[in-house]
Amino acid sequence: MDIRALVNQAIEARKKAYTPYSNFQVGAAVLTKNNHVFCGCNIENASFGLTNCAERTAIFKAVSEGDQEIEAIVVVGDTEGPISPCGACRQVMAEFCDQDTKVILANLNGAIKETTIAELLPGFFSSKDLTK
Ligand SMILES: O=c1ccn([C@H]2C[C@H](O)[C@@H](CO)O2)c(=O)[nH]1
Ligand SMILES: [Zn+2]
């Protein structure tokens, strides 16, 4: 897997962000185990809470195309260091990432942090918790 190429696809997707309220653009790219790439951007709303973050857009695109097994996900923003996903996105990642899924957090200046969902959201709620 070429991480740099995936970061570049996220950077391209970021250009499509709809951000009239925050003016903060984020891009994401999901590489599935089937070797397909789904890109996403953040999409804001006048009702602020309805905003969809870039990484959720990309994950939902993959899942809605029936391609839900994720090999790697990149998130990129114009942040000082690697971007830090919000709590809602971490929980959504937990649904579709396994312990080996690469979660790659980046910025526009080449900073890259590779992490995992276990590190980002320890103790996340999962389907296993629905039955005992
Ligand atoms: O990882 C992140 C962090 C923030 N945002 C979006 C949400 C909102 O549109 C804007 C400012 O929070 O950035 C993302 O898309 N992903
Ligand atoms: Zn988010």
TrEMBL record:
<feature type="domain" description="CMP/dCMP-type deaminase">
    <location>
        <begin position="1"/>
        <end position="128"/>
    </location>
</feature>
<dbReference type="GO" id="GO:0008270">
    <property type="term" value="F:zinc ion binding"/>
</dbReference>
<dbReference type="InterPro" id="IPR002125">
    <property type="entry name" value="CMP_dCMP_dom"/>
</dbReference>
<feature type="binding site">
    <location>
        <position position="86"/>
    </location>
    <ligand>
        <name>Zn(2+)</name>
    </ligand>
</feature>
<protein>
    <recommendedName>
        <fullName>Cytidine deaminase</fullName>
        <ecNumber>3.5.4.5</ecNumber>
    </recommendedName>
</protein>
<dbReference type="InterPro" id="IPR006262">
    <property type="entry name" value="Cyt_deam_tetra"/>
</dbReference>
<feature type="active site" description="Proton donor">
    <location>
        <position position="55"/>
    </location>
</feature>
<dbReference type="GO" id="GO:0042802">
    <property type="term" value="F:identical protein binding"/>
</dbReference>
<comment type="similarity">
    <text>Belongs to the cytidine and deoxycytidylate deaminase family.</text>
</comment>
<comment type="function">
    <text>This enzyme scavenges exogenous and endogenous cytidine and 2'-deoxycytidine for UMP synthesis.</text>
</comment>
<keyword id="KW-0862">Zinc</keyword>
<dbReference type="InterPro" id="IPR050202">
    <property type="entry name" value="Cyt/Deoxycyt_deaminase"/>
</dbReference>
<dbReference type="InterPro" id="IPR016193">
    <property type="entry name" value="Cytidine_deaminase-like"/>
</dbReference>
<keyword id="KW-0479">Metal-binding</keyword>
<dbReference type="GO" id="GO:0005829">
    <property type="term" value="C:cytosol"/>
</dbReference>
<dbReference type="GO" id="GO:0055086">
    <property type="term" value="P:nucleobase-containing small molecule metabolic process"/>
</dbReference>
<dbReference type="Pfam" id="PF00383">
    <property type="entry name" value="dCMP_cyt_deam_1"/>
</dbReference>
<dbReference type="InterPro" id="IPR016192">
    <property type="entry name" value="APOBEC/CMP_deaminase_Zn-bd"/>
</dbReference>
<feature type="binding site">
    <location>
        <position position="89"/>
    </location>
    <ligand>
        <name>Zn(2+)</name>
    </ligand>
</feature>
<dbReference type="GO" id="GO:0004126">
    <property type="term" value="F:cytidine deaminase activity"/>
</dbReference>
<feature type="binding site">
    <location>
        <position position="53"/>
    </location>
    <ligand>
        <name>Zn(2+)</name>
    </ligand>
</feature>
<dbReference type="GO" id="GO:0072527">
    <property type="term" value="P:pyrimidine-containing compound metabolic process"/>
</dbReference>
<keyword id="KW-0378">Hydrolase</keyword>
